[in-house]
């Protein structure tokens, strides 16, 4: 079966199934993270075929977060230690963005997080973004893979930071 290789910190590699949002997940890790969360630590990567493709449970627990197996994790979780941020990223290809309901779910799931929470919705194309534009929650960020150097900020008092 065709797989998508994803290189993690220290050169270790995992492989994601070829379906679903995994092409976008790879772009998030390879393109978004180095630009907007440099030197951040990858804590979680979900896979269409294996929900827990990569999970640094020990580090996440040390940040105050204990996630149950049935917890509805975002697609990618990154700890930006220099800024004190826990960045929660949803990769949207078929399921929706960080809308107000999803933002609240994530706030509850990560309620005990010591770092501040940053919510990001990622899309492959601007065309994909337009389908969900009216659903995106305020105080969140949007990243589009086809324009990887740009970020769209949905209001709030800070740009790319916790609220």
Topology (SSEs and partners):
Elements: E1 3-7, E2 13-17, H1 22-36, E3 41-45, E4 54-55, H2 57-62, E5 76-80, E6 85-92, H3 100-109, E7 116-123, H4 126-132, E8 140-144, E9 152-154
Parallel strand pairs: 6-7, 7-8
Antiparallel strand pairs: 1-2, 3-4, 3-5, 5-6, 8-9
State the gist of this model.
The protein is α+β, with helices and mostly antiparallel strands and 163 residues long. The chain contains four helices and nine strands; from the N terminus they run E-E-H-E-E-H-E-E-H-E-H-E-E.
Q: Give me the Rg, rounded.
A: 15 Å
Q: Which topology does CATH recognise?
A: Trna Endonuclease, Chain: A, domain 1
CATH homologous superfamily caption: BsuBI/PstI restriction endonuclease, C-terminal domain
- Per CATH, the class reads Alpha Beta
Helical proportion, percent range: 10-25%
Distance between the termini: 42 Å
String of helices and strands? EEHEEHEEHEHEE
Q: At CATH's second level, what is the architecture?
A: 3-Layer(aba) Sandwich
Mean pLDDT: 88
Largest sheet: 7 strands, mixed
Q: Count of DSSP helices?
A: 4
The number of E-state strands comes to 9
Observed structural traits:
163 residues, Trna Endonuclease, Chain: A, domain 1, globular, 7-stranded mixed β-sheet, 28% strand, alpha+beta
Description of the structure:
The structure is a single chain. With 163 residues, the chain is an alpha+beta fold. Helices cover 23% and strands 28% of the residues. The chain has a single domain, classed as 3-Layer(aba) Sandwich (Trna Endonuclease, Chain: A, domain 1), CATH 3.40.1350.80. It has helices at residues 22-36, 57-62, 100-109, 126-132, and strands spanning 3-7, 13-17, 41-45, 54-55, 76-80, 85-92, 116-123, 140-144, 152-154. The strands form two sheets. It has a seven-stranded mixed sheet, sandwiched between helices. It starts with a strand and ends in a 9-residue tail after the last strand.
């Amino acid at each position: 079966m065709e797989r998508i290789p994803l290189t993690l910190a220290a050169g270790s590699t995992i492989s994601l199934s070829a379906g679903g949002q995994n092409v976008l997940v790879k772009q998030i890790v390879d393109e978004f993270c180095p630009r907007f969360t440099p030197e951040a630590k990858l804590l979680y990567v979900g896979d269409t075929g294996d929900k827990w493709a990569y999970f640094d449970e020990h580090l996440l627990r040390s940040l105050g977060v204990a996630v149950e197996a049935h917890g509805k994790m975002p697609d990618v979780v990154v700890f930006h230690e220099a800024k004190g941020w826990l960045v929660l990223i949803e990769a949207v290809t078929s399921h929706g963005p960080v809308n107000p309901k999803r933002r609240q779910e994530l706030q509850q799931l990560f309620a005990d997080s010591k770092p501040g929470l940053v919510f990001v919705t990622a899309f492959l194309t601007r065309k994909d973004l337009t389908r969900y534009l009216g659903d995106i929650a305020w105080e969140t960020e949007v990243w589009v893979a086809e324009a990887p150097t740009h970020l769209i900020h949905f209001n709030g008092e800070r740009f790319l930071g916790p609220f």
